[in-house]
TrEMBL record:
InterPro entries: Acyl_CoA_acyltransferase (IPR016181), Bact_Acetyltransf (IPR050832), GNAT_dom (IPR000182)
Pfam families attached to this UniProt entry: Acetyltransf_1
Name of the molecule in the record: GNAT family N-acetyltransferase
Lineage: Bacteria, Bacillati, Actinomycetota, Actinomycetes, Streptosporangiales
Sequence intervals crossing the membrane: none
SUPFAM superfamilies linked to this entry: Acyl-CoA N-acyltransferases (Nat)
Keyword set, alphabetical order: Acyltransferase, Transferase
Every N-acetyltransferase domain range: 5-156
């Protein structure tokens, strides 16, 4: 019998597993690399030091099976409410369809409630139709249109 899913704050030694999940996907393969973990470890240090960030992993039977990141953002709108932005939600490819993602999102929502957030929001690449159906099953609504603009790296 499997142990119940356990969510916890990610640690530096988890970064390789997290990056592995980020690269194991059509979009991630084109923008991530698991060869040199240096930039990921640097980012992890910044995330871990920021009290408004929570990078978490899901464990089952002693192994990492999923990850997500929550950013807690104070706003002036909604009467000064705080919102939780959930990003980089990943479940190991070979374990999808077992309810792990739903339990991870339930945990993320509980973290948001504990911090007094008024809402939880997320973005999902428009090509991730399976993910869109997943979030809609969890009562997330596609309420906004998002825009992004890549910036060139800083000049040396």
């Amino acid at each position: 019998m499997s142990e119940p899913l356990r969510m916890r704050r990610a640690q530096a030694e988890d970064v390789a597993e997290i990056v592995g999940m980020l690269t194991d996907d059509v979009i991630g393969r084109g923008r991530e690399t698991s060869g040199d973990l240096t930039p990921y470890l640097k980012a992890f240090q910044e995330i871990d030091a920021d009290p408004h960030q929570l990078l978490a992993v899901a464990e089952e039977d002693g192994r990492i099976v999923g990850t997500l990141q929550i950013t807690f953002i104070p706003y002036l709108s909604r009467r000064g409410a705080t919102r939780a932005l959930v990003e980089a939600v990943r479940v190991r490819t070979d374990l999808r369809g077992r309810g792990i993602g739903a339990r991870m999102m339930e945990w993320a929502e509980s973290q948001a409630r504990e911090r007094g957030c008024a809402l939880v929001q997320l973005t999902s690449d428009r090509t991730r139709e399976d993910a869109h159906r997943f979030y809609e099953r969890l009562d997330y609504e596609p309420t906004h249109v998002g825009f992004k603009k890549p910036l060139p790296p800083p000049a040396d």
